[in-house]
Structures are given as C-alpha cells and as structure tokens.
Amino acid sequence: MKKSYLFWIIGIIVLIFIICLIVLILRGNEDDWIKDSRGVYIKHGNPALTPNYVKEQQDLISCSRALYGNMKASGINFYSQCLGRCIDYSIDIVHVPRISEDDLVENQCSDYRKGLTKHFIELDENENIVRIVE
What we know:
Elements: H1 2-27, E1 32-35, E2 41-44, H2 52-73, E3 82-86, E4 89-93, H3 110-113, E5 119-123, E6 129-133
C-alpha cells in the first residue's frame, strides 16, 4: 500500500514538472524585441542586447523622421505625398484613417513603383508611423 502511494506522489511531481517545462518553452523569451501592429520593433521585457535588425529599423525611422522634418521646415502642407527614400525604403505620407486614395498605385512613391526601393514606411501628417512594410 505504501509503495503505490509513493509511486503516485512521484508520478504527480514528475507530471507537474513536465507541464511547467512545456509552459516555459511555449511562452518564449520574455526579454526580446517584438513587432507591434505597425511593424515597429518594440522592447518586450528587458532584452540585454539590441539586435542589428532592430538597430537598422531604428536608423530607418530616424531617417524617415529627418525627411519629414526637412519637408516641414520648407513649409510644405502634408496631405498624401512621397517624402523620399531611406536606403531601400520609400517614405510616404498617408491618411489616418486610410482612405481609398492611399491605396492607388499612382499615389505610391515613384521609387517604389519603379522597383528602386522594395519596402516602404508610411507616416501620417503628424510624423507618426502608420506602418512599416518590409
């Protein structure tokens, strides 16, 4: 009787250990960089390092904001236009909320239409990132 009781206790402890291990594996790394709904990498937890792909995106965002700032300083009124390019990304102003005009091919940056850039960053008229498409 005592042996079967001990067997069940050990079995339950092993089962609890296995379940905890599976939960930890499925949860993933708590300290990592994840993409939000706009495609922007954000900190999740407290990652020890910033990966190169995150640094590259941060540089692209800085570049797009610099283009925006230069255009704003020139007195332009933002509506729906291409600001230029940063590396392999076209930087475009779109409406928020989006309207059908934003999706028209003729309103996309010419560098993107011509294939000179393969990706784009969309900003609203207030310099907020709408989305990053890689």
